[in-house]
Amino acid sequence: MDLVGACRAFVKVSERGSFTVGAAAARMAQSVASRKIAALEKHLGEPLLERSARRATLTPFGRDLLPHARRLVQLAELLEHEAETAKRRPFRLAVPDGCPAGALARLIADARRHELILEPRPLPPAERAERVRVQEVRAALVAVPEGEAVWTVPLGLAGATEPAGARIHLETLRAGRTDRDPPRRVWLQPEDEVPHIRDPLARLRDAVGLRPAQLMSAGSPAAAAAEVLCSRDLLLCSRAQAAELGLHWRPLGELRPVRGFAVAAAVRADAERIRELLGGGIARCLGAEPQGGSGPRAGAPARTGPGTETGAGTAA
């Protein structure tokens, strides 16, 4: 039975002393209020009200139970109020700090269509994972290897001048003995300061004979792009980011670096909700390639309790 609705009808009728006036106060028809109170009396095993042509008066049993019924109704109303407040509370989502503002605005608009007030928090990878761990955000797009990813972003090298070939091989950056110009460098953004991207590149750098300082990390996407725009250096980035910066992009010849992203949250339902409702908008923000369609990879697991991945130093 509808215990809260029955108690609400009982409280209002007993306070007004009339089924007609009490039912109106409870915002229900008189016949509905009568049925609910009758069902409550049957459930409790004793009559609550004495009915006459003019008035409804409390029985001794009803007088004893009225304070408890009133408290139950008040708690139900408080619960409803808190639920509405919770639905209006912003859902804080940690996102990569290189997400374009326009794509984030569209993501927020997409969320509102699902009655979700989204508040993106742009942060580098390690901070996103940490904010989820300490529950400063409800969910985060965390950096993961390609095999664990919901969204993937293939990376290549981009520079201010048009390269000659279809790919850029890292070995072509090796400085010759007679070169007078400074060695060309590859710049990593904070988003790529994670082991599954940085470490293979560092091993390749060493294998092809580049100097340690030819693989560098910048403090922000803007700082990394600025180094490339004013030199012959190259930026490790996605094709979409290169187009946004007006750079010429090519795949890397010796490796296929890929940014991978998954949703992490302290509560699994939050991770699943974000992935299912906003998967397409998140892909736009990340510049991700579709996996088997236009959305995130089907069946990829939501993550809870992510580990923290860090990158150290300025030269990889």
From TrEMBL:
Annotated Low complexity bias: 297-316
- Taxonomy, superkingdom: Bacteria
Q: Please verify whether the record's keywords include RNA-binding.
A: no
Q: Name one GO molecular function term.
A: transcription cis-regulatory region binding
All copies of the HTH lysR-type domain together span: 1-59
UniProt record similarity statement: Belongs to the LysR transcriptional regulatory family.
Query: Can you name this protein?
Result: Transcriptional regulator, LysR family protein
Species in which this protein is naturally found:
Streptomyces xiamenensis
